[in-house]
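2024-03-11 09:14:02 INFO worker-7 job=invfold-0412 stage=load source=structure_tokens
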């Protein structure tokens, strides 16, 4: 507040876009806010960005002369989809002999640099990160001016400093990441390779400061690492914060710097509300159960593990199972619906089998239910064999099937393009079972389907959320049913 403030003594006011020191009365605060001269309230990002390596998605920007060419922090929450290949988080460099990358290699987090064809440093975690159902918080803090080599690079995952191996940077070496040059998020900078596959949220870069994870997160009462509102006072020249909150400008920098990124092959459909504070279901490419030792070998996953292509005799399941509550999701049929089966399977079901038939060699405890696309029949099956009876209409390509699963009442309703096909009991399966969303294929042709657990990987013509305002569905969510996400599971699961 100004010195002529009616007798209140305090420091002189000096508001900026990042700090507001001094003592303030309400009119003076209002004037500062109205004039755009007041720091924003710290927030937690409400969106993520879904990267699909099959469509070559990435962000790019040319950095300026940095605040420091030796000191920076990279922070990002990531939820991986594809495994088994090298994928980039952030990358700089002009060719294979001159590059600097933060990436996953053999599911380990790596920070490495080559200059003139020689490796200048290569730091890699001993731990692997292959959970495709979880959000990881990655922090790489770099300060090559430090005298002790192990202080020059610190890598953290979910708030814990990682044990690493490899060669640290020499003291005072310059890094290509944060140099005045082009950078890419989600692919190797100098060519079309090593695309990231999965989700990123709250991507932050701080130029000139090596921060620890407490600037970005904290452990909650249950010991889980969670995001906190971001209140970084200075991002440095090249710093940025990507919140992905503007679907029309996904590369928008929310820091005071305005260091916006160019968006490449990403669209508004790729903006997601699957975030670290509310983790939505996806399909699970790693599932192996019921006699299947390596997961569904004839199934391909894409678009953030929401799109699945399957061949005859294979089934894919979701990564969030439920044994109580009322849940809703949608499935869009993209190709060849004739052998399609949509429904749910318990934890004993053999994924190397057609959903609904349970063969080969599903255990006696295997239980499934569902809706057959070829003729509209329903099925409820225990153990091996099949039990199909008349139910609803046949499913066609581009149809959207809604699944309303009531595990409190032991019943399920399937909807075809918003029209109920009828409710049927699944009491014969017993109670207390853990069920996963599932899709299978009985035909000789490949079938592709796209799952919407609340973040559709395809364009929808309307928008419907559940009663908790979670999810974005083509058709209305039935009353009392909820999207499969962790916030709903904590309340109803």
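2024-03-11 09:14:09 INFO worker-7 stage=emit residues=493
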């Amino acid at each position: 507040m100004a010195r002529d403030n009616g007798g209140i003594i305090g420091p002189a006011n000096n508001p900026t876009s990042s700090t507001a020191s001094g003592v303030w009365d309400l009119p003076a605060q209002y004037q500062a806010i109205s004039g755009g001269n007041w720091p924003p309230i710290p927030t937690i990002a409400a969106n993520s960005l879904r990267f699909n390596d099959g469509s070559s998605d990435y962000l790019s920007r040319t950095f300026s002369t940095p605040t420091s060419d030796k000191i920076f922090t990279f922070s990002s929450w990531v939820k991986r989809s594809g495994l088994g290949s090298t994928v980039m988080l952030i990358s700089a460099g002009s060719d294979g002999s001159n590059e600097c990358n933060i990436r996953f290699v053999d599911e380990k987090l790596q920070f490495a640099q080559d200059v003139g064809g020689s490796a200048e440093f290569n730091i890699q975690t001993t731990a692997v990160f292959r959970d495709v159902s979880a959000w990881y918080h990655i922090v790489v803090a770099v300060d090559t001016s430090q005298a002790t080599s192990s202080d020059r690079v610190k890598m953290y995952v979910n708030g814990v400093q990682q044990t690493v191996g490899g060669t640290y940077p020499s003291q005072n070496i310059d890094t290509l990441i944060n140099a005045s040059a082009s950078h890419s998020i989600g692919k190797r900078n100098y060519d079309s390779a090593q695309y990231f596959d999965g989700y990123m949220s709250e991507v932050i870069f701080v130029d000139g400061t090596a921060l620890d994870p407490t600037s970005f997160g904290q452990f909650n009462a249950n010991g889980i690492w969670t995001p906190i509102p971001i209140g970084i006072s200075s991002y440095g020249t090249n710093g940025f914060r990507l919140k992905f909150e503007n679907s029309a400008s996904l590369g928008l920098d929310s820091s005071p710097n305005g260091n916006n990124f160019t968006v490449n092959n990403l669209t508004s459909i790729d903006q997601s509300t699957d975030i670290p504070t509310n983790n939505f279901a996806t399909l699970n490419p790693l599932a192996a159960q019921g006699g299947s030792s390596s997961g569904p070998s004839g199934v391909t996953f894409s678009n953030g593990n929401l799109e699945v292509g399957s061949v005859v005799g294979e089934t894919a399941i979701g990564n969030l199972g439920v044994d109580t509550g009322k849940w809703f999701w949608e499935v869009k049929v993209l190709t060849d619906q004739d052998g399609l089966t949509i429904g749910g399977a318990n934890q004993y079901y053999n994924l190397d089998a057609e959903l609904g038939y349970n063969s080969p060699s599903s255990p006696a405890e295997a239980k499934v239910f569902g809706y057959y696309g070829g003729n509209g029949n329903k099925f409820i099956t225990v153990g091996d064999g099949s039990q199909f009876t008349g139910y609803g209409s046949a499913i066609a390509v581009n149809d959207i099937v809604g699944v309303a699963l009531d595990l409190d009442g032991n019943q399920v309703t399937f909807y075809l393009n918003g029209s109920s096909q009828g409710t049927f009991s699944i009491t014969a399966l017993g109670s207390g079972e853990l069920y996963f969303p599932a899709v299978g294929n009985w035909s000789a042709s490949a079938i592709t389907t796209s799952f919407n657990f609340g973040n559709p990987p395809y364009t929808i013509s309307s928008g419907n959320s559940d009663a908790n305002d979670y999810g974005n569905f083509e058709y209305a969510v039935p009353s009392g049913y909820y999207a499969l996400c962790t916030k709903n599971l904590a309340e109803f699961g």
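2024-03-11 09:14:09 INFO worker-7 stage=report msg="Confidence is low (pLDDT under 50) at residues 1-12, 289-294."
2024-03-11 09:14:10 INFO worker-7 job finished
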